[in-house]
TrEMBL record, chain B:
Species assigned in the record: Candidatus Halomonas stercoripullorum
Membrane-spanning parts: 20-42, 54-75, 105-133, 139-164, 176-198, 250-271
Keyword terms: Membrane, Transmembrane, Transmembrane helix
UniProt name for this protein: ABC transporter permease
Entry keyword annotation includes Cytoplasm: no
GO CC annotation: plasma membrane
GO molecular function, one term: ABC-type transporter activity
Upper lineage: Bacteria, Pseudomonadati, Pseudomonadota, Gammaproteobacteria, Oceanospirillales
């Protein structure tokens, strides 16, 4: 087992009286893609800044590539790191090529990498136009090219797919898959990323500065124990379905004529499926495991419960100066 | 060190590209030639006037203009990058905050320095060629001192602009404070000193007064250029008191240099503590 790229142990960060991060522990291995999720003010951006060494933790310990990111070896670490901030507006009066050239030289790499990078993100046709004329999607792709300068081993992307159209989003995830295949570690930071499940190895869900849950999607599904959705086309009635599937603890609802939706407990999945497959009156079926969105909603709701059990003071929650994500 | 030069180079090229360099050079050049040619219009004649008159009227106009240009040029240097998100990005690159700030400062200083040198230099060459300058040596020396002190004055106010820029969170606020700083140093300070002088019936010791003038870079700039022309003292306003003082030009230039270094040093100190 190689050394983890990121190790965070019980990290806390306070700004004055405001606790933005509390007891957060996290590890990221080489070639692993982590989805870091949470509302605005949940502590995502603070976590990113801590990993980048821009701010120091109040408590706990962080190591990136085995070193303190705010310490003396920080420059060495920064050569191996790519970062795309949220809502970055590059120098409008420069062309895409010039912007990338500037950052490439600051990363101690020659101009030669600029054109291939722009090609990789599909901006070759616009590279000599001023950034001012770029669409939101083009700017985002320029930002991504910037994060890829110097083939970093760790890439942090803050809200990377905001403003991208579906095709561009797909291309973007394709690129993430490529990076993962090359052993690059990636952190995707977002409120919610629809369709991201297939592209991440693990998800970490933050809420009000705390780690609500973290693990692989399967682990999260298990922990949340959310039912599996099965949609049926069948001539059977709700009552007869409910009666035959009752032993497995299945909830049945009718969505329309001859269409039913079953909420199946994860443990009973195979048994229920077998019984449905054997049923000649079931014409078609569709399986939908709990999505990351529903898992996120579930874990986020646990926060409410925790809050009610007075783990959190009302002051932390209602403060207007939430540190922006 | 290399990063510093890359940042400075980009800042300077930006200045060329958005026509700052061209605009400032033209303003300075036209101002100098215009004052040299029409400077004596009040006394009923048009044509190139004495070098001393030209430099004195030039310095009393430049003292308003240069600080304003310097503040306008650089007030958004840091806070502007912060607002557009590139500052956050630059800080994740392998370079220190000192390199970012000093690099940007050098770029802005070069923009103003080159404009000052070319604008006033070319104007001086035109005056020398077209006017009937009797003592070329005097013109060159006076102009060299003027350009040097004008550069230092500009850099001092770029330093102020940086100090403002690292201390606030919004660009508009930086612009407002820059305007107030200009107003304080260029207008209020002199009025206040004058008030003290008149109010105390001239009781303030002359020695103290000279040193009070050193507290304002614009006054130092005036004194430097006035002391060079003893004859021009009558036209110089408040700073002519300083001109009497016999403060050595090297001391004055040194004081101006301190006015460049101190605000910049403070800006560095604040910037290193700035929360991102």
């Amino acid at each position: 087992m190689t050394q983890p790229v990121i190790e965070m142990y019980a990290v806390g960060k306070r700004f004055g009286k405001l606790t933005v991060l509390d007891e957060v522990s996290l590890t990221l291995a080489e070639g692993e893609v982590l989805g870091l999720m949470g509302h605005n003010g949940a502590g995502k951006s603070t976590s990113m800044k801590l990993i980048l060494g821009l701010i120091r933790p109040t408590r706990g310990e962080i190591k990136v590539f085995g070193h303190d990111p705010g310490g003396t070896e920080a420059n060495d670490m920064r050569l191996r790191l790519g970062y795309l901030p949220e809502n970055v507006q590059f120098y409008e009066q420069l062309s895409g090529f010039e912007v990338l050239d500037y950052f490439a030289r600051l990363k101690r790499i020659g101009t030669s990498v600029v054109a291939p990078l722009l090609e990789r993100v599909g901006l070759t046709h616009a590279m000599h136009r001023r950034v001012k004329t770029y669409s939101k999607g083009m700017r985002q792709r320029l930002g991504l090219a910037q994060a890829l300068i110097g083939e970093p081993r760790l890439i942090l992307l803050d809200e990377p797919t905001v403003g991208l159209d579906p095709m561009a989003t797909r291309d973007f995830y394709g690129m993430v898959d490529e990076l993962r295949a090359k052993g690059v570690s990636v952190i995707l930071c977002s409120h919610v990323l629809p369709g991201v499940e297939r592209h991440i190895d693990r998800a970490a869900i933050l809420g009000q500065g705390r780690m609500l849950a973290s693990g692989s999607i399967d682990e999260l599904r298990q922990a949340a124990d959310l039912p599996l959705l099965v949609r049926l086309r069948t001539t059977r009635t709700r009552e007869s379905l409910a009666e035959s599937l009752h032993p497995y603890g299945v909830q049945v609802a009718m969505l329309g004529k001859e269409r039913a939706e079953l909420e199946v407990p994860v443990g009973a999945k195979m048994a229920v499926l077998r019984s449905l497959m054997d049923d000649p009156e079931v014409v078609d079926l569709d399986l939908e495991p709990p999505t990351l969105e529903s898992l996120y909603a579930y874990f986020d709701a646990t926060l409410e419960t925790r809050r009610e059990s007075k783990t959190f003071s009302a002051a932390t929650r209602n403060t207007p100066q939430e540190v922006s994500a | 060190m290399r990063s510093l030069l890359i940042v400075a180079g980009k800042e300077f090229r930006d200045g060329l590209r958005n026509r700052w360099v061209l605009a400032i050079t033209l303003v300075f050049g036209l101002l100098a030639i215009g004052l040299a040619y029409f400077g004596a219009a009040a006394s009923g004649q048009v044509g190139f006037t004495q070098v001393s008159t030209t430099i004195v009227s030039l310095s009393s106009l430049a003292v308003f203009l240069i600080p304003l240009i310097a503040l306008m040029l650089a007030y958004d240097s840091i806070v502007g990058e912060d607002e557009q998100g590139t500052l956050l990005l630059l800080l994740t690159y392998p370079m220190s905050r000192v390199e970012i700030l000093v690099g940007k400062f050098l770029g802005h200083a070069a923009i103003l320095g080159v404009s000052t040198l070319v604008g006033f230099g070319v104007a001086g060459a035109i005056i020398a060629a077209l006017g009937s300058v009797e003592q070329l040596g005097e013109l060159v020396a006076a102009l060299a001192l003027f350009i040097l002190s004008a550069m230092l004055l500009g850099w001092a106010f770029i330093g102020f602009a940086y100090l403002i820029s690292v201390s606030v969170a919004e660009k508009s606020k930086a612009a407002g404070i820059a305007l107030v700083v200009w107003f304080l140093f260029v207008i209020v300070f002199d009025l206040a000193l004058l008030g003290v002088l008149v109010g105390t019936g001239g009781q303030v010791s002359e020695g103290l007064f000279h040193y009070l003038l050193l507290l304002n870079p614009t006054d130092i700039f005036r004194i430097v250029n006035l002391t060079f022309f003893e004859a021009a003292r009558t036209q110089a306003g408040l700073a002519s008191i300083g001109a009497n003082a016999g403060l050595h030009p090297a001391l004055l230039i040194g004081a101006l240099l301190a006015w460049v270094v101190i605000p910049l040093g403070l800006a560095l100190w604040v910037f290193r503590r700035r929360e991102i």
